[in-house]
Design a protein that fits this description.
With 406 residues, the chain is α+β, with helices and mostly antiparallel strands. It has 10 helices and 19 strands. It has helices at 3-22, 28-36, 48-51, 74-84, 100-109, 122-134, 171-175, 280-289, 300-304, 350-368, and strands at residues 57-61, 67-71, 91-95, 114-119, 141-144, 157-162, 177-189, 192-201, 209-217, 232-237, 241-245, 265-274, 293-298, 316-321, 324-332, 338-346, 375-380, 393-395, 399-404. A 10-stranded mixed β-sheet has the order 5-4-3-6-7-8-9-17-19-18. A 7-stranded antiparallel β-sheet has the order 10-11-13-14-15-16-12. The N and C termini lie far apart (55 Å). 44% of the residues are buried. Its EC number is 2.1.1.77. It is found in: Cytoplasm.
């Protein structure tokens, strides 16, 4: 073995070790796959130190400069493979190719299994084919097609792993999943994306119900093609403050222009959050209890001028009800590492909405904080309400997703 090869192997071993130490890698099979697959061959233009850093490698942007293709961050790849639970002999479909993850999947299924990876972008499939061949993974099938429709030619699959943010669980994915199969998908719900691992339960005559077994907050490029679900931005102060809504989300309320300029009602919760602590679970809690939930984004200028004072400027919880808007705000806590969460509301029913928001922050703090994410149960859209589990739900293009907090 040359010195260069020894150096590359040492980088790969170091990355694998650090992913195991962080807990991103846990099962023996996935650790072995990470030790084996030469990631540098899938990002041939990057220096080897970059190839073996725990970082995403961006491969392509669209004309507006938005990233549309990448080789994913190793820690996220590891977490998702652990969620997927791929075993030897499995038939696996990967939606969104890069080559690297498909090679790891190929190691996991072994010679008895089968891996198909599909991508909508011909540049990506061409690159994936070439790099998989160069690294010795000629057995992986690569196809250019819109992942929204799965890949019926190789179905059924024991596992489907989607590596691009989806706003829905496409009907084809469920149809092409074998009985007892699992799908792992980065699903965007109310402004947040979670990689959720769902197991399929199919009873005779039913299209199948998906039950989540795990979820991890994550970020991916957005899906293109027939399943593209771009978020909508509704400006409430031109060029300064906007509300972000899921593609399928309907906001029935109508805010009056200039509502943010009305005197606010502000309430504080005494709930402290570490400056580095994530708002994700609190946001999901609020999204599931308030029908008018949306995400507020503001420019630096809007915050500086004190027009809005959101806890998170680039995307914080907000609720719109009739002509009133409320959102989470924060103020310095007793120590420099903590902030206190509160609510700020404007409009005719501001006092009540600010109080309700704070009451829900307190409920989350007492009942949910520090506990695992809820279970998500997914039924086809149109399922009679009597067949759905009790609990708050979100609707997407083809699904009703019930959130079971208990
Ligand atoms: C994050 S990259 C995939 C990373 C890859 N799995 C790896 O091994 O690192 C996401 C990919 O999804 C692809 N994509 C976007 N929309 C798609 C669609 N509708 N069907 C299939 N692929 C899609 C993009 O072209 C992009 O290459």
């Amino acid at each position: 073995m040359s010195n260069d090869q020894r150096y590359v192997e040492s980088l790969r071993a170091a990355l694998t070790g650090s992913l195991a130490d962080q807990g991103a890698l846990s099962s023996e099979a996935v650790v072995a796959a990470f030790r084996t697959v030469p990631r540098h061959l899938f990002v041939p233009d990057a220096p080897v130190e970059v190839a073996y850093a725990d970082d995403v490698v961006l491969m392509k942007r669209d004309e507006a400069g938005v990233p549309i293709s990448s080789v994913s961050q190793p820690s996220l790849v590891a977490l998702m493979l652990e969620q997927t639970g791929v075993r030897r002999g499995h038939r696996v479909l990967e939606i969104g190719s890069g080559g690297y993850n498909a090679a790891l999947l190929s190691e996991l299924v072994g010679p008895e299994g089968e891996v198909t990876t599909i991508d909508i972008d011909p540049d990506v499939t061409e690159r994936a084919r070439a790099t998989l061949d160069a690294a010795g993974y000629e057995r992986v099938r690569v196809a250019r097609t819109d992942g929204q429709f799965g890949y019926p030619e190789s179905a059924p699959f024991d596992r489907i792993i989607v590596t691009v943010t989806a706003g829905d669980i496409a009907p084809a994915w469920v149809d092409q999943l074998a009985d007892g199969g699992r799908i792992v998908v980065p699903l965007r719900l109310r402004g947040q994306t979670r990689s959720i691992g769902f197991d399929l339960e199919r009873s005779p005559g039913s299209a199948g119900v998906l039950w989540s077994r795990s979820s991890v907050v994550c970020g991916f490029v957005s899906m293109q093609g027939a399943g593209a679900a771009h978020e909508r931005l509704v400006e409430i102060e031109p060029d300064k403050v906007a509300l972000q809504l899921d593609a399928d989300q309907v906001l029935e309320a109508v805010l009056l222009p200039g509502v943010l300029r009305e005197t606010p009602e502000v309430r504080w919760s005494r709930v402290l959050l570490g400056r580095e602590e994530s708002f994700c679970q609190l946001d999901l809690w609020l999204a599931s209890v308030f029908p008018g939930y949306c995400v507020l984004t503001a420019t630096r200028r809007a915050v500086k001028s004190r027009l809005v004072r959101p806890a998170l400027r680039w995307g914080g919880s907000a609720v719109v009800r009739d002509a009133t808007i409320g959102y989470l705000t924060s103020q310095p806590g007793p120590t420099k590492n903590a902030v206190e969460i509160g609510a700020r509301a404007h409009g005719p029913d501001a006092r009540r909405l600010a109080e309700e928001l704070v009451a829900q922050v307190l409920r989350w703090d007492e009942e949910r904080r520090g506990r695992p994410d809820p279970v998500f149960v997914v039924h086809p859209l149109g399922t009679p309400a009597t067949d759905l589990p009790a609990g708050p739900h979100f609707t997407t293009r083809s699904r009703v997703i019930t959130v079971l907090w208990d």
